[in-house]
Amino acid sequence: MRVFIWFLRFLSWFPLPVIHAMAWPAGQLLRLSKRHREVSRKNLSLCFPELTDTERNTLVRQSLYEFAKSVFEAGANWYWPIDKINTKVKKIHGMEFVHAAKNEGKGLILAAPHFGAWEWAASYLPFLFPGEVLYLFKPSGNPALDKLIESKRQRGGGQPVPANSRGLRQLLKGLKIGKVAGILPDQQPRKGDGAFAPFYGVPALTQTLIPSLLQRTDSKVVFIVMRRLPRGRGFELHIIPADEEIYSADQPTALAALNRGVENCIAIDPKQYLWAYKRFGLRPNNEPRFY
After folding, report:
1. In degrees to the nearest 10, what's the CA dihedral of 65, 67, 72, 76?
2. Are 64 and 40 in contact (CB under 8 A)?
3. What residue spans of 110-248 are helical by DSSP H?
């Protein structure tokens, strides 16, 4: 791990266009990895069956390069001054949806899928919401790495909370007093901790946390993605309103709306979604596994 940390420090010495250029060979290596390549291809065949093989393979190559960028830009995200990180966000789309939600005086959930530079978004959000941001994170099992990630996410003023009962209590308390909570909506939960809902028409085990928090705290929710601009020119933050059905007390209705929100995020730039993630890893009713 020490070598990896020094590698990230080394990368932080370079400007963003150079960092992204340096990620290109890593993206090609990921394409040679059967696991990353085949999981990406399977996900795309499930979600976009209308694509030709050539179109699908192109999207696999592009998305793995974007994944490599997210790893390489972690050096800048961890070690650049916060002010420098913030200047790389060139434009915000949809801030009016945040204003509308905050004007009601309620808590706000930011549903941030595995899209583009989601870790850059985590560093930037405390700039938009000073002293208000809580991040839900799942410990990796490596205490040293978890401590490092937690310290880096706190640099801008955000407060990480663990994905356990203690963290849930912190989220509930924070949302009830009008704070902002960042949560990944597309992370597959453990079996028994979620429910199946359609994602691009395919049943996907979906976390129930966001609909549950909405019901228990009367908060609002929007979706956010940090989209990379070409040639390392920076990023654009997109804020997308949620389908009103996400507030339904009927869980299947709310979960379907949650997944539609993720689909709307992906539509902004499909190649920037993390297709290498086993989103359909667990299947309902003992159906055969996809991976």
Report:
1. 120
2. yes
3. 118-128, 143-153, 165-176, 209-217
The strand pairing partners of 135, in sequence order, are 160, 182
- The rounded distance, in Å, linking the Cα atoms of 43 and 83 is 37
DSSP 8-state symbol, 181:
E
As beta bridge partners, residue 206 has 195
Look at residue 244 and give its three-state secondary structure: helix
Beta bridge partners of 180: 108, 133
Q: Which residues, other chains included, contact 179 with Cβ-Cβ below 8 Å and sequence gap of 6+?
A: 107, 108, 132, 133, 134
For residue 271, what are its two tokens? Answer: 């190649």
pLDDT in tens, 235-283: 999 999 999 999 999 999 999 999 999 999 999 999 999 999 999 999 9
Q: Report CA-CA distances (Å) from 36 to 11, 203, 282.
A: 23, 21, 17
Calpha distance 169→227 (Å, rounded): 31
pLDDT in tens, 160-181: 888 888 889 999 999 999 999 9
Are the beta carbons of 217 and 161 closer than 8 angstroms? no
Residue 3 near residue 73 (C-beta atoms within 8 A): no
Under a CB-based contact definition with an 8 Å cutoff, are residues 275 and 63 in contact? yes
The span from the CA of 96 to the CA of 81, in Å, is 28
